[in-house]
Design goal:
The structure holds 2 protein chains of 2 kinds.
Chain A lengths: L15 E4 L2 E6 L2 E7 L6 H19 L9 E4 L3 E7 L2 E7 L5 H9 L4 E4 L4 E7 L3 H5 L17 E6 L2 E9 L2 E7 L3 H15 L1
Antiparallel strand pairs in A: 1-2, 2-8, 3-6, 3-7, 4-5, 5-6, 8-11, 9-10, 10-11
Chain B lengths: L2 H4 L12 E10 L2 E7 L3 H7 L4 E4 L6 E3 L11 E4 L6 E5 L9 E5 L13 H4 L8 H5 L6 H13 L14 E13 L3 H12 L4 E4 L15 E2 L2 E2 H14 L3 E4 L2 E7 L3 E7 L14 E13 L3 E3 L12 E3 H9 L8 E6 L2 H13 L2 E7 L13 E4 L3 E5 L6 E4 L4 E3 L2 E5 L2 E3 L12 E3 L4 E3 L8 E3 L9 H18 L33 E3 L4 E2 H9 L5 H8 L12 H12 L3 H4 L13 H5 L11 E2 L3 H6 L2 E6 L2 E7 L7 H14 L1 E5 L4 E6 L3 H8 L12 E7 L5 E11 L2 E6 L4 H15 L6 E4 L4 E7 L3 H6 L18 E6 L3 E6 L8 E7 L3 H12 L4 E3 L2 H11 L45 E8 L11 E3 L12 E9 L4 E9 L8 E6 L4 E8 L9 H4 L1
Parallel strand pairs in B: 1-7, 8-9, 8-15, 9-12, 15-28, 17-24, 18-19, 18-24, 19-20, 31-33, 34-44
Antiparallel strand pairs in B: 1-2, 3-4, 5-6, 5-7, 10-11, 13-14, 14-15, 16-25, 21-22, 22-23, 26-27, 29-30, 32-33, 34-40, 35-38, 35-39, 36-37, 37-38, 40-43, 41-42, 42-43, 45-48, 45-50, 46-47, 46-49, 47-48, 49-50
Helix pairs in contact in B: 6-7, 6-10, 8-9, 11-13, 17-22
Classes of the chains: A alpha+beta, B alpha+beta.
Chain lengths: 196, 989
């Protein structure tokens, strides 16, 4: 047996930079698990399973199942993003190497789980010019009057799939596929440079 | 005026809305001039009495400034120098800045003596469509002689032919209400909507909000109209719910309330070295839109109506009132409406000498102008002055000396955006103009002059009233605000288009040199549709898109055809309303940022270890790793292949698509999407799967592992990762919504490496954590497991082989991918490990006879690939029925086989076609084609895979490979596609 252990590395390499008055930083300490509600054409069965899942998540994380396009959060510790009918991302601070396996002990057979922690490069953009910067690449209406901390949207920016949420009035969190992290960072960084 | 401050500027009669304390130096044709802050290039040139600014497109006629806005057909100049040079820029909308350099264009020799002006004397031969009629023979001359000469003579400015040094950006904006145009109606609407709390975007292509309010001597709410505009704009800018976009042209109305707008951010700044975007192309999503784009004045057709000094009457007012410039020392006004009289009134008020006002109408004069000669029922029949207007001649033969003729032919509402989705404008006789029709783009309403409401009071009222309706419809509640108050000026008009008594050419379209004679000729030659008229004469083409000429041309045509203007109709207006640079459409998608790049987890390691990268879709993959002393890629690839087959090699295969499939019906789902059966696959096993399209042809292949009773992991080819996922989602959501199946991509989640070669197991034994056993007995070929490696890292291990060797694929969460590559290479040293790239991967798969993208090209069937028996007859699947079509299952169908050259020195070429050795090289004798070739360092020969008729029964036969593209023909022999380990002993060992 080789006496080695593997080290974590991230393509955004713990980026934390200030452009003008707005901060751009990589977020690399989150576990993300996809939660999918078992599907059935019997509505009462689906309702029953969903209620059970809801109860388990509330009990474990204090989070309520949300509708598609909305999020519930427990500060920065846990959040639940409704991304499509019957499917959510549970985003938590990193606790375990196998978050899906751990979460399975909570939700049991009320959901199918898939670890997505390594699928996404995550950027926080925070500051007075955050919204103006994102206007350059985000087709979604992110004005605070319609996009607040209860909203989440999956969209595309510069040809890349992106999930966007707004945990705070002047802070957005963006998730984009990990393999294209450098292209995504370039897109956001240029937007910010152009906007400030 | 203090001339020391303003330079010469001898035509400056006031400061208008300019900043007289800030002189601005600029150059035109190499000569230095001075203007004032707030000038356009056109107003500054006029202030300096530079009236001759260009030459016309076809006849090279001297031309001057004609308008004061984006409709300008004449004053097109080149701006900037070097790579920054930009041709065909309208001087009338070019904001003056310190150091601006402009040059006139389309002349050979000095502007005042253009040798190409000989065209003007040859005008009889240069009628509409002359080149279609003239350059017909000899036929061979067209491409080599005529076309180059015509192309060299045509066009206006020229490009720098250098890369554009500026940067451009794009963006997305959203609003409850988009207001196009910050004129009186737009400002009134924006104030009302903004104060009520709607999210408003108001855009105007000018750098000063107000539109005609800045060009008039009128009052709004008891203050000068320009002051009201400035105050209103300031209030709007202070509202957090209102975004004011000046220097922004809304150029197109698209589906679902989406508008395109170009914002010019730095064009007006002297410093061109800014890293900020020069222009931003906005896509605006608007729930409601108010089009307050105003109206454009048009001319009257009479002989020689194109001379420098002949201008639109409204433009004359603008230059006087906004820019403090007298466009001439002796002015004549020629009008068919009351608006022309307002120009006359402003001229006299400003103290500019007004020689006469000529009104085509026979009514009484609409106002008194003491000391001014008034000619009612008069017509200008021609003019004189080659480089600048010297006089006009009236219908009664009188000649009036003048250097400026202000022509007021009526106003045409700017309906263009209402037509971008096929809306057709309708004729309103009362104003002798087309107004928006009933079919408008979704959510659009039209206000003010754009709607035919030409008076100031009605424009303000209409803007306010329409905004109130929108507010109340939005649920905010009743709005009790009141409209701004202004006088309603008279806009009476009696249509008059063409001075028929004129002799000589009367211009309709100044930019394209289209005259009334061209229109008559076009009609005479049978062009009845206005669309045909446009294409034949070029009326309404180019940068101004006929803003000043369309209606005039459309009015002349009915005089020939006997139809009404309404029945004649207009051409279709399409985006863009004003020119949009191609660079702005490209935005920042230039060079390496044209599209995203995907990196594998071992990318950095590959970079550090001689990796040479190839683009596969958006991925960058190492195709080989060059070591010291290797001077040719084949050396690297041969080494990687031989070392892998001898010891062990590692290849990053993360790019393969990975789809996580869970659900109680997951197995049944896979049975339906794959040709072969997966419901019988045991947990902990992997199976090769073949996916068909509905038409029975092969769509994709890959392996699928069963990780649990209800949990599978499918792999796809790199190229088809997205399309297969999309296909599966379609099946899940649309075909079989009753199935309990959940799909999610796991491609990004796992870093995956192939570990192949006789030493693969030995290497991995030191990698997987105890007590996991990877012996052949407990972990045989096509086994899979979830385990940990390198002391606790979660991983997945699959015993599958693409190379034909004893091989595994090991996956870890991507964050460990880089480290895993390092660790495997470090630990593998003792087993003589080598990293191999996609070229070696390709060589080994060809040696093994595995099909890949070249073989799965969308035109081949399972039977063609030798996999016909994989299409299960015990179950149904997508493509099963149509794969059984007789024509796809004939005895002489093509089949995948191997090929070797008869001459070992011959290199095979993919794309070569197969024929019988003695057959004539014709399509009819074609028997198949070579799909993939490689140099096999194991066999020391070029080898190939390909399809040939009845191939599996023809092994050993000698045939001809014919390659007409490269001019090659050589003998090859048909062999088994399995060049290496045909019995699979290595991969099962």
């Amino acid at each position: 047996m080789a006496d080695m252990t593997l080290k974590e590395s991230y393509p955004l390499d713990s980026l934390d930079t200030l452009i003008g008055d707005t901060r751009l930083s990589a977020v690399e300490n989150l576990d993300i698990v996809s939660i999918a509600l078992p599907h059935t054409l019997a509505p009462e069965k689906t309702t029953e399973t969903r209620a059970s899942l809801d109860e388990k998540l509330q009990s474990a994380f204090g989070l309520k199942l949300t509708e598609t396009g909305t999020r519930s959060s427990n500060g920065d510790k846990h959040s639940l993003l409704g991304l499509q009918p019957g499917m959510w991302f549970l985003v938590t601070s990193r606790r375990t190497r196998e978050p899906a396996r751990t979460l399975k002990t909570v939700v049991r057979d009320t959901a199918y789980l898939t670890d997505q922690s390594d699928s996404w490069a995550i950027l926080d953009i925070a500051g007075p010019h955050a919204q103006a910067a994102l206007e350059r690449i985000c087709p979604v209406d992110i004005d605070k009057s319609v996009f607040d901390d209860t909203r989440v949207v999956r969209t595309s920016m510069e040809h890349l799939s992106v999930i966007i949420e707004r945990p705070e009035p002047e802070r957005f969190r963006l998730y984009s596929p990990l393999s294209s992290a450098q292209s995504f960072l370039h897109a956001v960084r240029v937007s910010l440079q152009n906007a400030v | 005026m203090n001339t020391a401050t303003t330079g010469l500027q001898s035509a400056r009669i006031g400061t208008g809305l300019l900043d007289s304390t800030r002189p601005v130096s600029f150059q035109f044709n190499g000569r230095s001039y001075t203007g004032l802050q707030g000038d356009t290039l056109a107003s500054a040139l006029l202030a300096n009495e530079q009236r001759l600014v260009g030459r016309s497109f076809k006849y090279h006629r001297p031309r001057g400034i004609f308008s004061a806005g984006s409709e300008e057909p004449n004053a097109l100049v080149e701006l900037g120098s070097g790579a920054y040079r930009e041709p065909n820029t309208r001087a009338t909308v070019t904001e003056l800045f310190e150091g601006l350099e402009a040059r006139s264009q389309n002349h050979r020799g000095p502007l005042s003596f253009d040798v190409m002006a000989i065209n003007d004397h040859l005008s009889s031969f240069l009628s509409a469509g002359f080149y279609y009629k003239t350059f017909m023979w000899p036929k061979a001359f067209w491409e080599k002689v005529y076309e180059p000469v015509i192309r060299a003579a045509a066009g206006l400015g020229s490009l720098s032919m250098q890369e554009d040094p500026d940067t451009y950006d794009k963006g997305f904006l959203h609003a409850d209400l988009l207001i196009v145009g910050a004129g009186p109606s737009g400002l009134a609407a924006a104030l009302t909507a903004g104060r009520a709390g709607l999210r408003v975007i108001i855009a105007d292509d000018d750098f000063l909000a107000g539109g005609r309010l800045n060009a008039e001597q009128m009052e709004v709410d008891g203050m000068p109209s320009a002051q009201w505009a400035a105050r209103s704009h300031a209030e709007l800018c202070s509202m957090p719910n209102v975004r004011c976009l000046l220097r922004t042209s809304v150029y197109g109305a698209f589906d679902h309330g989406i508008y395109g707008a170009l914002q010019r951010c730095t064009d007006h700044l002297p410093d061109k070295s800014s890293e900020k975007p020069r222009q931003i192309l906005w896509r605006i999503y608007a729930r409601q839109t108010l089009l307050g784009a105003g109206a454009t004045e048009r001319s009257i057709a009479f002989a020689n109506n194109d001379r420098p000094g002949i201008m639109l009457a409204g433009a004359v007012r603008t230059y006087m009132n906004r820019f403090g410039v007298a466009p001439g020392k002796e002015v004549v006004v020629f009008t068919n409406n009351d608006d022309g009289w307002r120009t006359a009134a402003d001229l006299t008020r400003a103290g500019v000498s007004l020689a006469a006002i000529i009104d085509t109408r026979t009514t009484s004069a609409p106002m008194k102008l003491p000391g001014v000669r008034i000619v009612m029922g008069g017509q200008v029949i021609t003019t004189r002055g080659r480089l600048g207007l010297r006089s006009v001649t009236l219908h009664d033969g009188q000649t009036l000396p003048c250097d400026c003729l202000a022509v007021a032919g009526g106003w045409s509402p700017n309906v263009h955006l209402t037509c971008h989705q096929r809306g057709r404008p309708v004729w309103r006789q009362g104003i002798a103009a087309f107004v928006p029709g009933a079919e408008l783009p979704q959510g659009m309403r039209v206000i003010g002059a754009a709607n035919g409401s030409l008076g100031l009071s009605s424009a303000l009222t209409e803007g306010h009233r329409t905004a109130v309706r929108i507010i109340e419809a939005s649920g905010i509640g009743k709005n009790t605000s009141s409209s701004p108050v202004a006088e309603q000026e008279s806009t009476r008009i009696t249509a008059f288009w063409h001075v028929s008594a004129s002799r000589g050419r009367a211009w309709i379209d100044l930019q394209n040199d289209v005259t009334t004679k061209d229109i008559a000729l076009s009609f005479k030659e049978g062009f009845r549709s206005v669309e045909h008229l446009k294409r034949y004469t070029t009326l309404g083409m180019a940068t101004d898109q006929g803003k000043t000429s369309n209606v005039l041309g459309l009015a002349v045509m009915p005089q020939l055809s006997g139809k009404t203007i309404q029945d004649t109709g207009t051409t279709i207006f399409r985006p863009p309303y004003t020119p949009i640079p191609i660079a702005a459409l490209a935005g920042r998608s230039r060079g390496k940022h044209f599209r995203p790049v995907r990196h594998t987890p071992s990318h950095q390691w590959a970079q550090d270890n001689g990796g040479d990268f190839v683009e596969t879709g958006m991925w960058l993959r190492a195709q080989w790793y060059t070591r010291e002393g290797e001077t040719h890629w084949r050396q690297s690839v041969d080494r990687e292949v031989l070392q892998t087959r001898r010891a062990v090699g590692i290849c990053d295969v993360t790019t393969l698509g990975k789809i996580d499939i869970q659900g109680k019906d997951a197995a049944a789902f896979l049975d339906r999407v794959y040709a072969n059966t997966f419901s019988t696959l045991a947990v902990g096993k992997v199976r090769y799967g073949l996916m068909l399209r509905e038409d029975g042809f092969v769509m994709d292949d890959g392996t699928t592992a069963r990780l649990g009773d209800t949990h599978f992991l499918m792999t796809t080819t790199t190229a088809n990762a997205v399309s297969v996922f999309r296909h599966l989602e379609f099946c899940r959501q649309c075909l079989w919504p009753e199935m309990d199946v959940h799909l999610i991509s796991a491609t990004e989640q796992w870093a995956q490496y192939a570990i192949a070669g006789p030493q693969a197991r030995a290497l991995l034994e030191g990698v997987v954590d105890a007590p996991f056993d990877i012996s052949n007995e407990t972990f045989p070929f096509m086994a899979c497991a979830e385990l940990t490696v390198f002391n606790g890292t979660p991983a997945r291990l699959f015993r599958i082989s693409f190379s034909g060797e004893l091989a595994y694929e090991l996956a870890v969460p991507t964050r460990y991918g880089h480290s895993l590559m390092e660790a495997l290479m470090q630990h593998g040293k003792q087993f003589d490990v080598v990293a191999y790239g996609t070229e070696a991967l390709g060589v080994m798969r060809i040696e093994k006879g595995h099909a890949a993208g070249n073989e799965l090209n969308g035109q081949t069937t399972a039977a063609n690939l030798g996999l016909g028996r994989m299409v299960s007859t015990k179950k149904d699947c997508i493509g099963a029925v149509l794969s059984k079509r007789p024509a796809m299952n004939t005895e002489n169908a093509i089949q995948l086989v191997g090929f070797m050259p008869e001459d070992s020195a011959q290199s095979l070429r993919a794309g070569a076609h197969f024929l019988s050795e003695d057959a004539e090289e014709t399509t009819a004798n074609d028997q198949g084609w070579m799909t993939s070739v490689a140099w096999s360092p194991v066999l020391n020969s070029s080898i190939g895979l390909g399809f040939i008729t009845n191939g599996s029964n023809r092994q050993g036969e000698r045939i001809k490979a014919y390659d007409p593209v490269r001019g090659e023909s050589y003998p090859v022999r048909i062999v088994s596609p399995h060049f290496v380990d045909p019995d699979g002993e290595r991969l099962r060992g």
